[in-house]
Amino acid sequence: MKRSMHCSGKSESLPMASCLRSALAIDFTFLLLLLALHPAAAGQQNATEDQVKAAYLLNFAKLAEWPSSALPEGPSPLVIGISGGDDEFLSVMKAVVAGKITGTHPVGVKSAKSPEEMKTCQIIFFRGSERKHIAAAIESLPPTGVLFVGEDESFLREGGMINLVRDQGSVRFEVNADALDRSGIHFSSKILALAKAGSAPSRTTLSNLPADAPRPEGTRRVEHTVPPEYPEIAKRMRLTGTVQVEALVKPDGTVKEVTVVGGHPVLADALVHAVMQWKYQPASRETRETVKFSFIP
Question: Are strands 162-167 and 123-126 parallel, antiparallel or unpaired?
Fold first, then answer.
């Protein structure tokens, strides 16, 4: 299936909030993406946290390929729902998307407190204050056609797809590749390669286990990733697809070996090389971790 990105050709700038929170630097790599859509944002590297997160949400909307069932062709709006939090973020988000269009769809924002309100949204941003209700909310919503974005450390384990996290003074994002695959919403591999983590822990992770207790396989959190490079030969051959590998991770979190489970050999070799450089959280014994990555030019 051909995967495209919906982008606006207009020059757009990020507004400053009236009540500034602590300043955060936008991750430089993602800033390059922002500049492609927001040429006037070059001087906004000290934007507030709310502005940075709002910019991420807008660009996720622009850079995603949506299933036609979730966003049919035509002038129907693409709605970003905000679940929880205060009115200040909602105001910042509305200011950021004001007048924005992705493809033929005007971008809108609204508060989404109930499942009925959430079902009319293409993106739902769960604020950290909603952590106790996230799992139930996700379970009540369709598994496809809705992008779940959060900002809590347990969000991906609850079935979330993209999580915004603070990392050394910047806001970065993590991706639950399995949940994103099931949603039918696709991003270019160039976008996914910017994620802080290439895959999320299983939803069966038991976060209250003692540090020295044996953990089920596939539940160790990724602490450091190196995104796979799209091989030049794959570009020339126009190779795309998903690769799945299994990493044997030592107790100290370093990767001992990587075995290919499925995928084109050329793409698989790139993922193996990258995963060998990953670092997982320490554990009491070796574990096997599954990693999936979609290569899309």
Answer: unpaired
Cβ atoms of residues 14 and 51 within 8 Å? yes
Confidence of residue 219 (pLDDT cuts 50, 70, 90): low
Angle of helix 87-97 relative to helix 49-63, nearest 10 degrees, comes to 50
Which H helix or E strand runs over 149? Answer: strand 147-150
Contact 105, 145 (CB under 8 A): no
pTM of the full structure: 0.57
Written as one letter, the residue type at 118 is: M
Domains of the chain listed by start with CATH number: 1-17+24-201 (3.40.50), 220-297 (3.30.2420.10)
Please give the mean pLDDT across all residues of the chain: 75
Residue tagged 């299936």 (tokens): 1
For 26-44, give one letter per residue: b (16+ CB within 10 A) or e. Answer: bbeebbebbeebbeebeeb
**Tokens at residue 132, please?**
């106790």
List, for residues 135-191, the tens digit of each pLDDT value: 899 989 887 899 999 998 889 888 899 999 887 777 888 888 878 888 889 887 667
Q: Is 96 helix (H, G, I), strand (E, B) or coil?
A: helix
CA distances from 116 to 77, 120, 123, 199 (A): 17, 7, 14, 30
Q: Contact, 147 vs 60, CB < 8 A? A: yes
Question: Is the pLDDT reported for residue 196 higher than 90?
Answer: no
Q: Are 215 and 266 in contact (CB under 8 A)?
A: no
* Helix pair 28-37, 49-63: axis angle to 10 deg: 60
Whole-number Å distance between alpha carbons of 142 and 162:
16
281 secondary structure, DSSP code: P
The answer to whether residues 177 and 294 touch, using CB atoms and an 8 Å cutoff, is yes
